[in-house]
Each structure stands twice: as structure tokens, then as C-alpha cells.
Amino acid sequence: MRTYSRVILFGFLTWLIPFAVSVLIYSLHTTERPLFESIMPVVITACVVYFSLIYFRQAALGSLREGLELGLAWLLINLFLDLLLFMQGPMKMSFADYVKDIGLTYLIIPLITAGFGYLLDRHGR
Questions:
Q1: Predicted TM-score (pTM) of this structure
Q2: Which of 44, 70, 71, 76 has the fewest C-beta atoms lying within 10 Å of its C-beta?
Q3: How many domains is the chain built from?
Q4: Nearest-5° Cα angle at 43, 39 to 46
Q5: Is residue 18 within 8 Å of 81, Cβ to Cβ?
Q6: Which domain holds residue 62?
Q7: Taking the alpha carbons of 53, 57, 58, 60 in that order, is the dihedral positive or negative?
Q8: Tens of each residue's pLDDT in the chain, 125 residues
């Protein structure tokens, strides 16, 4: 993996931007829950694609392994920050409920970054 500070910063931003969007559209969570649940994975995907493009643009090479490591790092950052809010913080959600409601969505992250790494390794820039 390249510079750890970029990995951590981009991982944090892949959490912060969707979190900010969820706060802005939280009223949909109660009035139009299916719409809320559809918007959030799209926002997460857009953030992960955007920050993957930036990350791999400056990487000398890409590989499936690097993409997978990057995605797992971002996944762990997102889970850690979420669990602070949803288990310990104001939301008070059980771990099982968190995984069913939110946590599985984050599996998008390593799938996207691994795909970027694979494509760069396989097809070059």
C-alpha cells in the first residue's frame, strides 16, 4: 500500500461524506425509508469510486492485492467510525441490527477498490 496518510484520509472521507448526506436526508429515513436505503449505497459507491480514482492515479502500479488491501483498510475505517456512533454513541444499535441495516453495504468498498487494482494490473493505465 502507498502512503498510509492518504489511505486513512480517503478512508475517513469515504465515511464522512455519506454520513453527512445521511444527516441531510435523515427525514427520508422515517418518511420514505426505501428511498433513503437506495440513496445511501449510491453515495457510498460514488465516494469510493472517486477516491479510488484519485488514489490509483498517483500509484505507480495497481494490483488486485493493493486494491483489496486498500478496500479492506477503508472498510475497517468505516466500520470503526460507524460502530462508535451506532453501538457506543447516540444511536444505541445492537451489532446484529447494525450489520443487517448498514454494515453489509460497506462490502461495496473492497469490491470496488479490488476491481480498480485488478484492472490497472491487467490492462495498465
A1: 0.90
A2: 76
A3: 1
A4: 140
A5: no
A6: 4-123
A7: positive
A8: 457 999 999 999 999 999 999 999 999 999 999 999 999 999 999 999 999 999 998 876 779 999 999 999 999 999 999 988 888 777 778 888 888 888 899 999 999 999 999 998 887 65
